[in-house]
């Protein structure tokens, strides 16, 4: 309900049990459980133990006098009271986040908080960009959440951060504003001494014979790779699934197989590291990062400053890639 004098209720008229016994922390935990559909995921997101999460929900439910969740099979779902509370809690947090933004704006760009949600490959450059940004604005506090594509899209939908970086444009862009950012090509990686490392123009069908290390469900890279194989009527011979680009690189070096990852995952070691790029038909897959925020979201001064700053230093990222991988960069007609 929009705020107006007519529907305003002074705090003195709010029931005692809500004012005295319910804490914002409990509401935060409750909100995370409903949004993520799991006590475990909420505990992970909030860096709490599961017993703490369960205890706080018990206290909240006791003070409201109604159960908030029901267990259906292995899933938890909010009860009718839980649904009502969730609706109210979202309004409370939206108001608080708006307040935070207003207060930051009063303080100016020199102070305030920036919340960024980025997909896994952006972690290879986002901290650097943030480092330079924080040098320019030392009073800014930054929270960086790194997740796979599915989780970042969930965060965009529930408006959890100021800005997001995703690895390719979403198909439906009706609710978001996107700013194209630096190239994010996908390449095939193998250990330097892999027999295919000496071959050129390798057909995808040949790749499908090799043990393959695939990212976890929910990963944008995984979806792109599986689509490519599927379009050619092929399937990779998946030897294992791993939920981290770094773990996949180690598995490649350990001789467990080949994989497809973003070129940026090799940003630190460059072409002289233990991982080689294979010359495979249909690769590199040309993709691009995007800075994103929901349409209609008023960016705080800090978020706007970060967006401008990132777009300003974007050419540096391209230059670094051109220097490290000149042959590959020449193929990327961005
Ligand atoms: P992912 O996304 O971590 O969801 O695979 C990475 C990317 O798209 O670059």
Number of strands: 12
Number of helices: 12
Strand-residue proportion: 15-25%
The CATH architecture of the largest domain would be 3-Layer(aba) Sandwich
Structural class: alpha/beta
Helix content: 40-55%
Level-1 CATH class name of the largest domain: Alpha Beta
| Total count of domains | 3
Rg to the nearest angstrom?
Answer: 23 Å
CATH superfamily of the largest domain: Periplasmic binding protein-like II
Instruction: Write the CATH fold name of the largest domain.
Output: D-Maltodextrin-Binding Protein, domain 2
String of helices and strands = HHHHEEHEHEHEEEHEHEHEEEHH
Describe this entry's structure for a reader:
It is a single chain. The protein is an alpha/beta fold and 334 residues long. It folds into three domains: 11-93, Winged helix-like DNA-binding domain superfamily/Winged helix DNA-binding domain (Arc Repressor Mutant, subunit A, Orthogonal Bundle); 109-183 and 288-332, Periplasmic binding protein-like II (D-Maltodextrin-Binding Protein, domain 2, 3-Layer(aba) Sandwich), CATH 3.40.190.10; 186-277, Periplasmic binding protein-like II (D-Maltodextrin-Binding Protein, domain 2), CATH 3.40.190.10. The protein is 43% helix and 20% strand. It has twelve helices and twelve strands. The protein has helices at residues 16-21, 24-36, 39-45, 50-64, 80-107, 126-136, 149-157, 204-207, 220-231, 245-253, 301-324, 326-331; strands at 69-72, 75-78, 112-119, 140-147, 163-166, 176-183, 186-191, 211-215, 237-242, 259-262, 275-278, 288-294. The protein has a five-stranded mixed sheet with strand order 4-3-5-12-6. Helix 2 (24-36) crosses helix 5. The mean pLDDT is 88. The structure holds 2-phosphoglycolic acid (PGA). Residues 119-121, 148-149, 167-168, 184, 215, 219-221, 262 line the site of 2-phosphoglycolic acid.
């Amino acid at each position: 309900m929009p705020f107006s004098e007519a529907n305003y209720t002074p705090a003195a008229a709010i029931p005692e049990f809500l004012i005295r016994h319910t804490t914002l922390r409990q509401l935060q935990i409750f909100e995370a459980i409903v949004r993520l559909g799991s006590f475990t995921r909420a505990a992970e997101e909030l860096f709490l133990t599961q017993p703490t999460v369960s205890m706080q929900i018990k206290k909240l439910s006791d003070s409201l006098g109604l159960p908030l969740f029901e267990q259906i099979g292995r899933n938890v779902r909010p009860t009718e009271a839980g649904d009502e509370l969730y609706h109210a809690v979202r309004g409370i947090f939206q108001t608080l986040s708006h307040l935070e933004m207003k207060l930051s704006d009063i303080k100016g760009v020199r102070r305030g908080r920036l919340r960024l949600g980025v997909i896994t490959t952006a972690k290879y450059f986002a901290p650097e960009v943030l480092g330079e940004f924080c040098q320019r604005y030392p009073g800014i506090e930054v929270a960086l959440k790194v997740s796979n594509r599915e989780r970042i899209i969930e965060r965009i939908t529930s408006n959890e951060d100021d800005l997001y970086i995703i690895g390719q444009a979403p198909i439906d862009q009706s609710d978001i504003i996107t700013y194209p950012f630096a190239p994010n090509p996908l390449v095939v990686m193998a250990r330097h001494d892999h027999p295919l490392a000496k071959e050129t123009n390798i057909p995808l069908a040949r790749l499908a014979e090799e043990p393959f290390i695939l990212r976890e469900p929910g990963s944008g890279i995984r979806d792109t790779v599986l689509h490519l194989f599927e379009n050619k009527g092929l399937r990779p011979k998946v030897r294992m699934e791993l939920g981290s680009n770094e773990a996949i690189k180690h598995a490649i070096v350990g001789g467990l197989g080949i994989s497809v990852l973003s070129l940026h995952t090799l940003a630190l070691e460059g072409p002289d590291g233990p991982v080689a790029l294979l010359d495979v038909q249909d690769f590199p897959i040309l993709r691009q990062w995007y800075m994103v925020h929901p349409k209609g979201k008023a960016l705080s001064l800090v978020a706007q400053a970060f967006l401008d700053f990132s777009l300003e230093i974007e050419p540096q990222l391209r230059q670094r890639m051109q220097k490290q991988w000149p042959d590959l960069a020449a193929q990327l007609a961005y």
